[in-house]
Amino acid sequence: MTDIVLICAFAFVAFFVKGVVGAASAIVFNALLLVALALGYGGELTLADGLYWLAIADMFSSTVMWAAMRREVKFEPLTSRLLLGMIPTVAIFAVVLTRIDVLWLSLLLSMAVIGAGVWLASRSRDVPADPEKVDRLAFPTGLLAGVLGGLFGMAGPVFFLLLHGASSDPSLFRRRAVLVTVVTNPVRLISLVAFGAIETRHLEWFGWSVPGIVIAMLLGGWLHRYVKPRPFRVVLGVLVAIAGIGGLLRYAI
Questions:
Q1: pTM score
Q2: Rounded mean pLDDT of the chain?
Q3: How far is CA 249 from its chain centroid?
Q4: Are 117 and 242 spatial neighbours (Cβ–Cβ below 8 Å)?
């Protein structure tokens, strides 16, 4: 029962943040999970179990967002090149997730969470980069994003930098991000299912957490108009980075 309570509580916070800022659900969930495990409050919940559940929840949330925006979301050269790099590495590193030693997985996730927290806190609305440069970077960016996406469901900080540099139009940025996630999340989940990682308990946890996810996203979306994105991201980024450091301290003491 402790597992279900933790999953539902972390899911509500993570997807509330996604409702407010349009992203970062995986970053927040992973940060909360690291802290719970580091403090010994995880019960029987393991890091791998949390990441497997997250693969299901992310596919659900991205599909819901795509369904709401399907008339606006379209493939284009930039996102196609990005996905060309992401799809194979997401699939490969999702399989690596099922084979990697839990100690290395924890250390890698802690460092990735710290980096994501720094990214959130320092992210700004820069002038778009040179279009030709952005196009050249799309494929290699996709390769790197796929590594973090396959392992931790946290491709966002990498490919968001590319999309953010490609356009200052928030609506275009959001449409591109939705397209990328709705394509790559099923790839990750299918890879995990194919290698036997997803079990009945992960589906049960997801079933329990669905109402909280939906309510949290709706609440976050409603509050979005009242929250100033930049200060919110800074505070969130600092908290996430601290959580990542807490995850590292688990192995230092």
A1: 0.86
A2: 85
A3: 23
A4: yes
